């Protein structure tokens, strides 16, 4: 599996391009601020054809470029219904003061083709399988995407702003909940094998085992009981 990524824009939100191999179809995950040039560079370098954009959540630093990317590539965007309204009203996910405009009155639009994600869904895209896990807490519609292990790579989870190397997503913005994010971490993350690679929405990649052992926010969080859905 080919995974290429880069931190997009001033927010340094990680945008990923995922494909079975060079020269094949791919998906784009979280095209943030000014992400188009970086995406096009990866597509040219690896001779990839995008078939979809996947969104881990609706915050502007992760969806800024979704409409132009989807429009230019003629591909659908996938987002959880609880965050869909942020695609056209990004200020709803931020704590703005009275009369304060978002980036000088920035306005976003939905892509022409938006498809809603469901918890436990399995997406078959670009020759890959992605398991969708609803993980509220950072936003109501936050999700993670997991791909199964291959000969070259362990299980991979694109965690968005749920789990970072050494930290977790903030819960002080509108729609956030510390209680919910801890429950999501227990259910979605801590029940995964230690070798699972975690590619977060910001910062360097990590593993479930490393975070289980060293992340201070997980010290008092126990894995949820019961089997995982999908993959």
From TrEMBL:
Its cofactor is Zn(2+). The keyword Aminoacyl-tRNA synthetase does not apply. CDD domains: metallo-hydrolase-like_MBL-fold (cd06262). Keywords: Hydrolase, Metal-binding, Zinc. InterPro entries: MBL_Glyoxalase_II, Metallo-B-lactamas, RibonucZ/Hydroxyglut_hydro. Signal peptide: none annotated. Residues 12-202 form the Metallo-beta-lactamase domain. This is MBL fold metallo-hydrolase.
């Amino acid at each position: 599996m080919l995974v290429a990524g880069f931190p997009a824009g001033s927010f340094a939100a990680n945008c990923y391009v995922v494909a079975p191999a060079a020269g094949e179809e791919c998906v784009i995950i979280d095209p943030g601020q000014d992400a188009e040039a970086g995406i096009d560079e990866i597509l040219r370098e690896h001779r990839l054809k995008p078939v979809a954009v996947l969104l881990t959540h609706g915050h502007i630093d992760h969806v800024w470029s979704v409409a132009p990317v989807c429009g230019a590539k003629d591909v659908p965007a996938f987002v959880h219904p609880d965050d869909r309204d942020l695609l056209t009203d990004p200020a709803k996910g931020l704590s703005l003061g009275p009369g304060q405009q978002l980036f000088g009155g920035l306005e976003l639009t939905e892509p022409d083709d938006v498809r809603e994600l469901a918890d436990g869904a399995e997406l078959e895209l670009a020759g890959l399988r992605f398991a969708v896990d609803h993980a509220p807490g950072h936003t109501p519609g936050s999700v993670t995407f997991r791909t199964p292990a291959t000969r070259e790579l362990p299980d991979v989870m694109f965690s968005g702003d749920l789990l970072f190397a050494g930290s977790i997503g903030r819960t002080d913005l509108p729609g956030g909940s510390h209680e919910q994010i801890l429950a999501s971490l227990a259910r979605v993350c801590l029940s995964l094998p230690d070798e699972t690679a975690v590619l977060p929405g910001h910062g360097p990649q990590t593993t479930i085992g490393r975070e289980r052992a060293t992340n201070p926010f997980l010290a008092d969080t126990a894995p949820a009981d019961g089997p995982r859905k999908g993959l």
